[in-house]
Amino acid sequence: MPPPEERGDERILVGTEFADDAAVVRIGDDPTRATVLTVDIIAPLVDDPETFGEIAACNALSDVYAMGGRPLFALNVVGFPDDKLPLTVLQAILRGAARVCARAGVAIVGGHTVRDGELKFGLSVTGEVAVPEILSNRTGREGQALVLTKALGTGFIAQAIKHGHAEPAEVATAIAGMTTLNGPALAIARGFGVTACTDVTGFGLLGHLRNILRGSQLAARLDMAALPALPGALAHAAAGRVPGGRKRTWGSCGRT
Fold first, then answer.
1. What does the pLDDT look like over 27-75, one tens digit per residue?
2. What are phi and psi of 123, to 5 degrees?
3. Among 203, 197, 176, 169, which Cα is nearest to 55's?
4. Residue 64 class from Cβ within 10 Å (0-12 exposed, 13-18 middle, 19+ buried)?
5. Closest by alpha carbon to 120, among 154, 158, 99, 93?
6. Domain span at 12
7. Residue 15 neighbours by CB distance under 10 Å
8. pTM, to two decimals
9. 173 Cβ partners below 8 Å, 6+ apart?
10. Helix, strand or coil for residue 152?
11. Which of 124, 137, 123 has its CA nearest to residue 208?
12. Per-residue three-class SS string for 49-110
């Protein structure tokens, strides 16, 4: 981790230099504790609004777990097309998010809603972490193994859902993964001496791994055949059901 003076503010322990999942800052006088700050907002990946709320909440809370932290409080962040959708849809989304946050022991203490042409939802999350236990993109070590706690391919399944090609079993398996909190996985990882972590979401495995490699000044070798994929994900990818953002960033950044 760069010394504070190189970052310009000694309160910032993890900032934006290597695209970490969240910021980690010191607030208060206790040098052993730090605050984790993140905001994450996504468009719907599934048709059911309550399930979408659950997925979006898990997605945002995961950023705090990826830093080695514990999420504490959250604010809802909403873009809602009230000229196209009834408010009952928004209410269902908020119910789903509240249910996930309750499971995580996170209190939703407010939020902000704006009119938007397209539905979007997420959370701004505040958490805490012990300074010696911070995980980031800069703290990988040579010789370590890359461990994935969930199967890959949610973006491909989401595209298949959008275009009506996903099988019910594929959808159910993807939703089960996307609504599973990463707190238990973090607790298990601690027992195996994990030093670096990232949340594999919008940039795909290659994009997020690239951030760790840049931050930790390492290289990696992947056995593509060993990577776990969701049922149907590879077939949908082969059929061209790939998220648009990944197509745009493939050449310039090496993201999937």
1. 988 999 999 999 999 999 999 999 999 999 999 999 999 999 999 999 9
2. -135, 145
3. 176
4. buried
5. 93
6. 4-253
7. 14
8. 0.89
9. 151, 230, 231
10. strand
11. 137
12. HHHHHHHHHHHHHHHHHHCCCEEEEEEEEEEECCCCCCHHHHHHHHHHHHHHHHHHCCEEEE
CA 217 to centroid of chain Cα atoms? 23
Total domain count, the chain: 1
By the 8 A CB rule, do 44 and 79 touch? no
Compute the Cα dihedral for 60, 66, 67, 71 and give only its sign.
positive
Q: Which residue has the tokens 């972590």?
A: 197
Q: What is the tens place of the pLDDT at every residue in 160-208? A: 998 899 999 999 999 999 999 999 999 999 999 999 999 998 788 998 9
Element at 24 (helix H, strand E)? strand 23-25
Q: Which pairs from 87-92 meet CB under 8 Å and 24+ separation?
A: 89/49, 89/119, 90/49, 92/48, 92/49, 92/50, 92/53
Residue in this structure with the two tokens 């236990």, named with its chain if needed: 133
Side-chain-side CA neighbours of residue 219 (13 Å) = 1
Q: How far apart are CA 21 and CA 14, in angstroms?
A: 10
Give the separation between CA 34 and CA 28, rounded to whole angstroms: 9
Which stretch of DSSP H or E encloses residue 155?
A: helix 154-162
CATH of the domain at 47: 3.30.1330.10
Single-letter code of the amino acid located at 41: I
What 3-state DSSP class applies to 175?
A: helix
Residue 43 near residue 119 (C-beta atoms within 8 A) = yes
